[in-house]
Sequence to fold (306 residues):
Amino acid sequence: MKGLELSRAFYLEYGKAMLEQEFSALLPHIAVGLVGAGSECLGFDDEISHDHDFEPGFAIFLPDETVVDRATSFRLERAYAALPKEFMGYKRSRLSPTGGARHGVIRLCDFLTEKTGTPNGALSLRDFLYLPEQALLEATNGALFHDGDGAFSKIRERLSYLPEEVRRKKMAGELLLMGQAGEYNLPRALSRGDTAAAQLSAIEFVKSALHFAFLLNKKYLPYYKWQFRAMQTLPTLSHLADPLLSLISAPASADTVAQIASFFTAALVEAGMITKENASLEECAYTVNDSISDHTLRNLHILVGV
Fold:
């Protein structure tokens, strides 16, 4: 069973009734779900994932103390802790009186501050530019099983992806890094017989290529250990996962880099971001950067977003 399925089932079996019977007045003000860190919030959990943080549980997200005071929050924490300690053969961990990092009672403003740096998830272009995409993904992944006034859902929708100007800035940076590592440094290192430098160049190319593929698909880049797994689910360019893997698991190949680069430039042409199909990745980088309409963002260093 997947962790998100287990969480939803536990909520529907026990949590929903507890909230409706003991805290019905709170239902219009709270959200309930499983959101944040952990492979289960991405749907990537498996048998190996069961060795830590895999259990029946969910989070109850509260508004600030002007709406739900501390005494009510404490009563809710005790009610959550009193739910069955085992469900469908899985045992729950003991929670501290204030809940757990992923389960239990959590102030929504605290969760959003941890993930976005602001208590309401209101971000400027620069905030989006500098925040780790993994954090933004953790603010918007998983699922809500209940959202009384829809406030959390609206915030998640607002944070669902980068503003277009920021996306282009990040794309420009990754294109430049790919050009430097893959089209310039890799062939030079291979011609010198410097296999260590060649492999490092390939690794740098792959790291930027993965991020670029997610940017092109308007998807947040997950934590590094899930990037190849997640790339296989992308609507566009998922077929490049195997060539990218070959670059870091076999001797680096300039031909493989050229093949991957050709798919990237073709995708940029299709997206209307460039017109020259045989452009180098460095040329593509500056063309994409020049397409940014916000002059302050456009004039920042091209690598500022990566």
